[in-house]
Design brief:
There is one protein chain. This protein has 305 residues and is of the alpha/beta class. It has a single domain, classed as Histone deacetylase domain (Arginase, Chain A, 3-Layer(aba) Sandwich). Helix 1 packs across helix 10.
């Protein structure tokens, strides 16, 4: 058995030329994983569209309706930062279904990866920062609703604080939110995660990995989750235009190995989403996003999951 990976055949919703969000990266990531023999086509799983009732476990019915029907007001649409289209609505909902499926596969296999996900800036009644629906929050609520888990740990290592996720679970003891992010970065107003680790600008590989090592093992011992959601945002990279940290490719690789091996070695299943990554060089973004899949494939084989 090989690592299960969730992918989305409808990768690209049309965006204006030169838009800051690299939608093309999702399709190219899938192609790269196959071309580099990180994964075989048989390892990929197709998600289904989730029912609106599942999305509404987190988001208000009015927001879900207005976004899906394209009737959000202009201010709310600008806050999201992505131009509305029916194709983007479909892709957004499929991506949520992908994270739900990734979580289910992680519970049954011990480790699974999504080729999308990590939309952690979405709040119950509005979207923000390229995030429309909060996929990890929805997936967490679905698993809890179905009785598949009782305790979840969200490890958010995107360079930006997972503010929407922190807000959604601020009064929910079933989900523990951990965000390690650049302090002087979007969002301007931070929310209170269960544990926040704000990092100074320019932090490099060694300092970052040591900081993570100071927190992750103790978190696992404290929370004892039935499932870990891991947001593996690569906007921590030195070359990311929205990041402000200074990790190298090797640093990102070591981070993925540190997170996945620490969790899996202790018997905690992990569902990975790719989070943010923004650079002028699309190939460089895709390679960085592929690192979590490369490491996960190695860890999966090493621990014979």
């Amino acid at each position: 058995m090989d690592l299960p990976i969730v992918y989305h055949p409808d990768y690209v919703a049309p965006l204006p030329p030169g838009h800051r969000f690299p939608m093309e990266k999702f399709r190219q990531l899938h192609e790269t994983l196959i071309a580099d023999e990180v994964a075989h086509p048989s390892q990929f799983h197709l998600p289904e569209l989730p029912p609106h009732e599942w999305i509404e476990l987190v988001h208000t019915p009015e927001y879900v309706r207005d976004y899906c029907e394209g009737t959000l007001d202009a201010k709310a649409q600008r806050r999201i930062g992505l131009p509305w289209s029916p194709a983007l609505v479909n892709r957004t909902c499929v991506a949520v279904g992908g994270t739900i499926l990734t979580a289910q596969l992680a519970l049954s296999h011990g480790l699974a990866c999504n080729t999308a996900g990590g939309t952690h800036h979405a709040f119950p009644s509005y979207g923000s920062g390229f995030c429309i629906f909060n996929d990890m929050a929805i997936a967490s609520h679905v698993l809890l609703h179905l009785g598949l888990v009782q305790k979840i740990l969200i490890v958010d290592l995107d360079v930006h604080q997972g503010d929407g996720t922190a807000f959604i679970f601020q009064d929910d003891p079933r989900v523990f939110t951990f965000s390690m992010h650049c302090e002087v970065n979007f969002p301007g107003t931070k929310q209170a995660s269960d544990r926040d680790v704000p990092l100074p600008q320019g932090m490099d590989d060694q300092e970052y990995l040591q900081t993570l090592a100071n927190y992750l093992p103790d978190l696992l011992s404290e929370v004892k989750p039935d499932l870990v959601f891991y947001d593996a945002g690569v906007d921590v990279h030195l070359g990311d235009r929205l990041g402000k940290l200074a990790l190298s490719d090797r640093g990102v690789f070591c981070r993925e190995m540190q997170v996945l091996s620490t969790c899996v070695a202790q018997g905690y299943p992990v569902a990975c989403v790719i989070g943010g990554g923004y650079a002028d060089d699309l190939n460089a973004i895709v390679y960085r996003h592929s690192l979590v899949h490369r490491v996960a494939s190695d860890v999966y084989r090493q621990y014979r999951l």
